[in-house]
């Protein structure tokens, strides 16, 4: 068996996953390059503004791919009641309230390794959510989260 046959393939979401996204679905994608040169490292589309209900699934998914999460920074005005910590998968995750904007959540693993995720509003339309998430995970993305959401929001149909 060749040496190259023994490596474990990277866990990447298939592009077809975007077609399966329905309103109210939580979906996470992380930038697939190691360079992390883009402004955002990924995107998240929670089902609601209840952070205690939404965050455990996100943290579990992130932990599986990038390791243990120690802190989450988010904007208190964007979420219903934010506890100071949650126990997720038998680990304590501290929640910090920062004026980062309701369109971003900051994930910390280790002591100083941060990931910035675009937060697609729970009530976003399917096409707008798909477009925003696809742009957020591009390695060459230089658009800030708020502008990215504005640029991809659905325009009302012309009458």
Number of helices: 4
Strand order of the largest sheet: 1-2-7-6-3-5-4
Low-confidence stretches: 1-13, 155-159
Instruction: Give me the strand/helix succession.
Output: HEEHEEEEEHH
Arithmetic mean pLDDT: 79
Main sheet summary: 7 strands, mixed
Radius of gyration: 16 Å
Query: What is the first-to-last residue Cα distance?
Result: 64 Å
What's the number of extended β-strand segments?
7
Structural class: alpha/beta
Residue fraction in strands:
15-25%
Shape: globular
Helix content: 10-25%
Outline the structure in words.
The protein is an alpha/beta fold. It contains four helices and seven strands; from the N terminus they run H-E-E-H-E-E-E-E-E-H-H. The chain has a seven-stranded mixed sheet, sandwiched between helices. The longest helix is centred in the middle third of the chain and has 16 residues, at 51-66.
Quick structural summary:
The protein is α/β, with parallel strands linked by helices and 159 residues long. 25% of the residues lie in helices and 23% in strands. A hairpin with a 2-residue loop joins strand 4 (85-88) and strand 5 (91-97).
Topology (elements, then pairings):
Blueprint: H1 17-20, E1 28-30, E2 42-44, H2 51-66, E3 69-74, E4 85-88, E5 91-97, E6 104-109, E7 113-119, H3 126-136, H4 145-152
Parallel strand pairs: 2-7, 3-5
Antiparallel strand pairs: 1-2, 3-6, 4-5, 6-7
Helix pairs in contact: 3-4
